Structure to design on (352 residues):
C-alpha cells in the first residue's frame, strides 16, 4: 500500500477542558531504523484522558499533546533495522513505550503515551518496534484497544507482590475499565470476586461476568462489614482500590490480615467535598493488620505479552460500553465524564 505522508490527529492547545480537543492535519515523521508506522484502527479512553484535558494530571505532561494512550492497529511500514515484525500484523503499543520489563523507572515513565509524550488519537502513529505486542487473534481492533492500560493495570496488579492464587477472594470497587478487567481476570484465574457499585444495573453486568457477590454501597453503606460477613470474618485477600481517601478506611477494615490493597485510582469524591476524610488512623490500622498496600503504574511490555497469553487461552472478551467515531471524540469524552459506563469507551479511528 502507498505510505501516507500526513495524518489527522487531535491536539490539546489548552488544557482547561476537553472542549479544546482540536482535529488538525500533521506530517508523519520519517521512520527511524528501529521504528514502525502503525495505521490506528481503534483507541480506548480512560479517566486519565479527562484529567489530562483539564490540566489536572499529577504527573509529567507535555504541552499541546496528542492525547490517548491505548490503541490497536496494523503495521504498514517498517524501519530498515526492524526484525521480528511484518507488514499487516495487528498490534498494540505498551502504555510506556520504553517500559519493557521489570519495575518502571523515571526514564521509562517519561515515555508514557498521551501524557509525557504524544499519544495515539491519530490516524497513523510512529512507534518504536520494541513497544509493540501482538493482538490476541480472537479480538477485534476495538476490543484490543482496551488492553494497554485498563487490562494491563488489572493484570499487573493481581500478579505482582502477593500474587493472586486460585481460591483467593478479591474485592473490586466499581465497574470502570480497570475494575471490570480485574473482575474478569480474577474469575479466569479461579478467584472468588465481590463487586461494589452504586448502580444495580451495573452490578447485574458484574454478575454476568462472574462476580460471586455484589453490593450496592448506596443501599449498603457499611459495605466493609458486609464483606467481612461474606468472608466469614476473614476478610478478602485483595482489594482493587479505585476510590481513594473516601473508601480507603473501609478497604483496610475488610481486607484480611496480611492481605493486599492495590491503589489504582482516586475517583470517589472527585466532584464533592466527601473526599475530605481524616486518614490519621490509617498507618496504625495498616500496621495492626500487617496489610500490604501497593500501587501500580500500568505494566511492562513483558507483562502485556504474559497477559495476552491468558486472554487468548480463556478467550476473554473485553466489555465495551459504547463506540464513537473519530470525528465525534468530544462526545466520547463527555460520555466518559458522565461516569455511567460499564467497561470501556472506544473510538473507531479507521473506517476500513
Amino acid at each position: 500500500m502507498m505510505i501516507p505522508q500526513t495524518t489527522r490527529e487531535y491536539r490539546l492547545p489548552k488544557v482547561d477542558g476537553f472542549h479544546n480537543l482540536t482535529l488538525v492535519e500533521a506530517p508523519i515523521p520519517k521512520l527511524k531504523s528501529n521504528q514502525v508506522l502503525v495505521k490506528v484502527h481503534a483507541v480506548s479512553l480512560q479517566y486519565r484522558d479527562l484529567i489530562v484535558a483539564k490540566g489536572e494530571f499529577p504527573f509529567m505532561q507535555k504541552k499541546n499533546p496528542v492525547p490517548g494512550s491505548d490503541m490497536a492497529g496494523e503495521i504498514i511500514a517498517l524501519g530498515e533495522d526492524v526484525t521480528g515484525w511484518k507488514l499487516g500484523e495487528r498490534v498494540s503499543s505498551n502504555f510506556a513505550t520504553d517500559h519493557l520489563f521489570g519495575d518502571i523507572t523515571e526514564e521509562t515513565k517519561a515515555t508514557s503515551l498521551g501524557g509525557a509524550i504524544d499519544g495515539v488519537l491519530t490516524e497513523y502513529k510512529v512507534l518504536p518496534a520494541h513497544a509493540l505486542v501482538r493482538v490476541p487473534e480472537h479480538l477485534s481492533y476495538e476490543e484490543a484497544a482496551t488492553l494497554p492500560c485498563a487490562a494491563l493495570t488489572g493484570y499487573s496488579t493481581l500478579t505482582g507482590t502477593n500474587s493472586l492464587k486460585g481460591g483467593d477472594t478479591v474485592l473490586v470497587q466499581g465497574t470502570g475499565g480497570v475494575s471490570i478487567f480485574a473482575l474478569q481476570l480474577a474469575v479466569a484465574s479461579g478467584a472468588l470476586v465481590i463487586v461494589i457499585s452504586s448502580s444495580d444495573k451495573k452490578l447485574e453486568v458484574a454478575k454476568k461476568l462472574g462476580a460471586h457477590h455484589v453490593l450496592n454501597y448506596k443501599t449498603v453503606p457499611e459495605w466493609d462489614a458486609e464483606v467481612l460477613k461474606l468472608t466469614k470474618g476473614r476478610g478478602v485477600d485483595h482489594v482493587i482500590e479505585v476510590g481513594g481517601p473516601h473508601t480507603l478506611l473501609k478497604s483496610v477494615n475488610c481486607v484480611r490480615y496480611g492481605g493486599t490493597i492495590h491503589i489504582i485510582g482516586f475517583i470517589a469524591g472527585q466532584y464533592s467535598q466527601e473526599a475530605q476524610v481524616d486518614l490519621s488512623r490509617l498507618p496504625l490500622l495498616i500496621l495492626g493488620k500487617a496489610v500490604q498496600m501497593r500501587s501500580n503504574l500500568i505494566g511492562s511490555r513483558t507483562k502485556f505479552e504474559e497477559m495476552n497469553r491468558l486472554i487468548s487461552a480463556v478467550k476473554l472478551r473485553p466489555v465495551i460500553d459504547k463506540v464513537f467515531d473519530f470525528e465525534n471524540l468530544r462526545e466520547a469524552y463527555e460520555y466518559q465524564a458522565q461516569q455511567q459506563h460499564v467497561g470501556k469507551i472506544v473510538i473507531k479511528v479507521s473506517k476500513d
